[in-house]
Amino acid sequence: MKKTVLNIFIFFLFFSGQINSQQFTVGSPEWLVDRYFRHQKFSDKQKYFIGEMSKEIKNPSIGEKLEGKAEMYFHQIQAAKNECVFAVKIYADGQAIDFYCYLTKQKESWKIRAIRSFQLPDFLFNVLDSLSNLGSISPDDSSLYRTINLFVLNDDKLNDYLNNHLNKFISVIEYFNQTQTNEVDKELKALGCSAVFLDKKYPGCIFVQIAAFEKTETGFIYTSETAKLPVISEKKFIYIEEVVKGWYIYRIM
Fold first, then answer.
1. In terms of DSSP H, where are the helices of 40-154?
2. pLDDT band with cut points at 50, 70 and 90 for residue 126
3. What is the pTM of this model?
């Protein structure tokens, strides 16, 4: 009996997902995101790709590569009159992969202009494995391990990390505002973060950087009520999303 109920429940979830995927208005941003990442066929890409995506017209979409079999969820993280950005999560082969999809409205028609995913070099994962296999670890190596481990987390896990350690992050901001450098350094090391700083281009924002490697960077932003956040785009800040009031995750590529 239990097995029968479970099978019916799974079927219902699958069937509901299929219905939901058909409810988007044809040509809408949601319809395009769903089609690119979920559908097994995307045969008329030339109608919906612009900019750098024009070079991808002959290449398979994510949905085509995965033959429409992957589990996929998405939500909008930025909306403007003629531009919008979606965060997309793909579950495949036991892994969760984050993508970001950037769309532009051109002559009353929505187009995909860019796709990004936060990619890190393999050697970082090799270092992480090596550190985790050490029998004993020095304080410096322990700090490095925490930082890399945090750097490679996906969006959902970073969200959880900030929520679970929010009081410590608030302490970092308080010590930073009071210019208590030693206390800031202690809290950053304990959290696995590398730096806290201001950027005059974004008044009202305090950046708590996890790590940066070449052109990639990720961390958190604390904002005042009058803060000017960076604009999300495929050119630098590829992802910004609020986790709790006044606190955001950011990624740079």
1. 62-65, 122-132, 139-151
2. confident
3. 0.86
